[in-house]
Amino acid sequence: MRAIIAFLCSLLLVIPLASCTNDTPAAASYTVCFVLEDGSTSTYLVGAGECAVAPQLPEPPQGWYENPNLLSPSYDFSMPVNRDITLYGKWVADAPASSWTVHFLGTDGVSGPTLMEVKHGDRVARPADPVRNGHVFLGWYLDDLYTRAYDFNAPVTQNLYLYPLWASASQGREDFFTVRENGDGTVAVTGLTYLAEGVDVIEVPQTIGGMRVSSIESNGLGDDIRCIILPEGLETIGDYAFQQMDHLVSVVIPDSVKEIGDFAFYFCPALSRAVIGDGVERIGDYAFSSCTRLADVSIGAGVKEIGDEAFSACAFSSIDIPEGVKEIGVEAFYGCTRLVSITLPEGLEILGDGCFSVCHSLESVVVPSTITYLGAYAFEYCSSLEDVELKCSVNIPERAFANCDSLRTVSVAGVSTIGNSAFYQDSSLETVELPEGLVSIGNYAFSGCTRLSGISLPSSLERIGSSAFSGCTSVGELIIGDSVTEIGDWAFYDCGFTSLDIGDGVTDLNGFDLRYSTSLTHLTVGKGVDQLPEEFAAGCGHLIAVTIEGDVTVVPDSAFSGCGHLRSVTLPDSVVDVGDYAFYGCSNLASVDLDGVQTIGDRAFSGCSALKDFILPESLTQIGDYAFHNTLGPCVLNIPDSVVNIGTYAFSRMRQLVEVSMPVTVVTLPGYVFDSCPFLAEVELRGAFDVPTSWDANWLGWNDDVSLVFTGESGE
């Protein structure tokens, strides 16, 4: 196929040439060379000021690029051609190649490798620095304009062409430097006395005035230097030593250096390569902060501490932290938006606050078992982070992994506390393993984790904070163990429960807003709860079964109203009051045990169109308006002698009601209590020969054929 494409292309081109290396055409025209998918080339001539035309291929590329690494932007065919150009096509392969070739390009006088074969996804080994007479090597780049330094920690996924960057002059005479004697036979370099025109490389000598150079101090070498060669024997790079050197491109720090000071290379916008020697023990605060082109970094094996914001806002895609590092400071790698992978070694003890926050490209992280302190917002806003494994036993602090939009799985070891907002708004989080020993889950800890499901709360858990799981719309089944004694407000607001079992240790339900849940089917409230909130599970249209085990005395207003699929309700014997609208509209509820109930509120069971099995207990004194309106009702209804008041329409439209037995001790009886009961045939009035005069004349409603049976000894 590739041979056919190449052949067709050659037929379509105006003037085919053998290769991109043909003789230069006359000034009136320029050569445009196209590199095809199989590596073959075809060229044609374009008149000066005319536009090139892309060849018509059976399988055209996604674009044509002047850079062999296919770096953006793609070539603009609307621009007139004013020079010879070579364009490389970008094809997407069906499957990646098993290996790639990395070309190290050079010029005359260069010694070093020319190409390396690398397996797909592996890193290319950094070759020894090439040598060129009269020049200093500054680093390898992906483009010949030297805007993109190559990151040797990045995996190789295509053929690469790397360009060497050189500086061509140096200055190193002792009398060009100002120094301060330290009193111990060493000197500190404090500045320059002279910088020749065109010099962009400075070589600091090992000795000045017969004394060893031990340190370089604050920002005394100017900002026009591209490269500084530091001597062996140097021990300290001072605070602010090279800060804001606008043209500094490369630095190699010798093994003799023990400490890199605070702000040492701060805001060096052109710095792309830094080699830190094995003798360095501490990299200071902000040492390389805001070096926005720093893509090629090697940290020496001797480093023990990386300071606050030491590498914040740098450009590398991967970095290896040496095994000897004990502490990574506050926001040390904050805002390294190209950082894809990082290896944290066993032995590391401290990860400072925000150490990797806003690393948008970071994909996974394993936190080693030796960590003793994990800082707040350590990985916040790592929007590409997918997998986290915490091997350590430290607590997870506030916002540690908040706003990690791609985070899918979290595995934690022996933590006792998950802090406030620790996984806040991690909208892709699907599973989290909560270990035994976990005692507290903080406020908003998992709020907004809309895909989180299969949560298993350990038996050690005691506290769940406010809004801890709010907005977790995919939770499914959840069992809250008896060990949990505190649940904060709105802890489970807008959660997608299918089944919820609240353990005996919970005493307060303010953390549960189950209203209008579209997924909850089964609900159990444990023995520790003695009070339900109003509208507790109102509008849960798929709720099937409810069990209340605690010593609840009141089923509050609208507690289960609108639960159209509710079929089973188990209430404790302690219930004495069923509130207004408590079960309103529960159209599938067929039975309810009211033993011990004293008052039934307005419309408490109104609209329970399947309700037929219930007995009004001897404890009952009050029946509210429309209390059993539009229910199926029992065939025989016995209203006990204890009832004092019955509301209007209380038993209206009971479609199965045939007989009623009620006492005349009811003080008042409003109109239409039994209105529109189509099969009501007989009402027995116990204790009288006549209807009490205090009753409304229309108490039966529109039931003209009802027979009244009096069983008393005298009328009123």
Word description of this protein:
With 716 residues, the protein is an all-beta fold. Among the domains are: 2-89, Sandwich (Immunoglobulin-like), CATH 2.60.40; 99-167, Immunoglobulin-like, CATH 2.60.40; 169-343, Leucine-rich repeat, LRR (right-handed beta-alpha superhelix), CATH 3.80.10.10. Helix content is 2%, strand content 24%. It is built from one helix and 48 strands. The strands form ten sheets. Strands 9, 10, 12, 13, 15, 17, 19, 21, 23, 25 and 27 form an eleven-stranded mixed β-sheet that branches. 43% of the residues are buried. The model is unreliable at 1-26 (pLDDT under 50).
What brief labels describe this structure?
716 residues; mainly beta; Immunoglobulin-like; Leucine-rich repeat, LRR (right-handed beta-alpha superhelix); 1 helix; 24% strand; Listeria/Bacterioides_rpt_sf; Surface_bspA-like; Leucine-rich repeat protein; signal; LRR_dom_sf
What order do the helices and strands come in, and which of them pair?
Elements: H1 2-12, E1 29-35, E2 41-47, E3 64-65, E4 85-89, E5 99-104, E6 115-119, E7 136-141, E8 160-167, E9 177-181, E10 186-192, E11 201-203, E12 207-208, E13 211-216, E14 227-229, E15 236-237, E16 250-253, E17 259-260, E18 273-276, E19 282-283, E20 296-298, E21 305-306, E22 318-320, E23 327-328, E24 341-343, E25 350-351, E26 364-367, E27 373-374, E28 387-390, E29 409-412, E30 417-418, E31 431-433, E32 440-441, E33 463-464, E34 476-480, E35 486-487, E36 497-502, E37 522-525, E38 545-548, E39 554-555, E40 568-570, E41 577-578, E42 599-600, E43 622-623, E44 636-638, E45 645-646, E46 659-663, E47 682-686, E48 707-710
Parallel strand pairs: 1-4, 5-8, 10-13, 11-14, 13-15, 14-16, 15-17, 16-18, 17-19, 18-20, 19-21, 21-23, 22-24, 23-25, 25-27, 26-28, 28-29, 29-31, 30-32, 32-33, 33-35, 34-36, 36-37, 37-38, 38-40, 39-41, 41-42, 42-43, 43-45, 44-46, 46-47, 47-48
Antiparallel strand pairs: 1-2, 3-4, 5-6, 7-8, 9-10, 12-13
